Amino acid sequence: MTVKYSFITFSFGEGRLKHAKVLLASLKQFSRNDVEFLIVEKGSRFLENTPYRYIPVSSDESYNRALCLDAGARAARGEFLILHDIDIPLPSGFFDNLDRMADRYRYFSTYNEIHHLTEEDTDRVFSHPEKFRYGYYGFTGERMRRFGGDVRGGSSCIHREIYFACGGMNPAFTVWGGEDEEFHVRANLLSPCGTPETALVHLYHLPADRDPPVLHADPRYIKNVELLAKTHGDPRGVIKELKNRR
Q1: Smaller CB count within 10 Å for the chain: N or C?
Q2: What is the pLDDT of residues 134-152, one digit of tens each?
Q3: DSSP element (H, E) containing 38
Q4: End-to-end CA distance of the chain
Q5: In whole angstroms, what is the distance from residue 6 CA to residue 211 CA?
Q6: What are the Galactosyltransferase C-terminal domain coordinates in residue numbering (predicted)?
Q7: Cα separation of 103 and 90, whole Å?
């Protein structure tokens, strides 16, 4: 059977292993033959023995999200690529929602709202990852974000032709920040992004930008800001550059 969706997620070392166990447990509820799951792991082999396609990558950077997602996209066989963070477990209707959106869009978010769990509720989920279901706990949301307001990443779905036509995720982005928005600018230019009326749950972790002065002084972060500004200023030029590098 033709693969309709390639679900791509990633992990770095031990920092998100508990989150990974919850996400992987949530994948077990799906038995569709037209979906493949790809696990990209950088710098370790903790998730090598999952029942899903495993893609190890190497990088000198401690955080290179764009590199991992792009490695998954290059290996994927699906018509649509789902670029998904490992700290967001899936609800039972996830792929039904994608089917509805894929009939209308070639690039779309998989959610309208992301509800961030408190540390306490996330610890409850960690204690029984196999039992996690949306609505199973009486969650207390730490905060909520809406797609297109203060977030454009976390989980998105894009037709493979659009992904490669816009240049894909840019692996020049290292450390935290900017890679999602920069990719969105290019992808949205070629195929306007759709947004469903659905919500996802985000498991708690310490924020990557918890020490803004240190992060903002990091030369790698400054480079991210410059890359983002360049794409906002000349998205078609950046698309051409990225495609020429492939």
Answers
A1: N
A2: 765 545 555 677 766 555 7
A3: strand 35-42
A4: 29
A5: 35
A6: 150-187
A7: 21
CATH code for the domain in which residue 108 is found: 3.90.550.10
Distance between CA atoms of 154 and 200, rounded to whole angstroms? 10
**Which residues, 6+ apart, have CB-to-CB distance to 186 below 8 Å?**
166, 167, 231, 235, 238, 239, 242
pLDDT tens across 55-81, in order? Answer: 999 877 667 899 999 999 999 999 999
* Sheet strand arrangement including 141-146: 141-146, 113-117, 199-202
Q: Which domain holds residue 216?
A: 5-245
β-sheet bridge partners, residue 8: 38, 83
Residue whose entry in the numeric block shows the structure tokens 């649509």: 80
Q: Which amino acid is at 141?
A: G
User: pTM of this prediction?
Assistant: 0.93
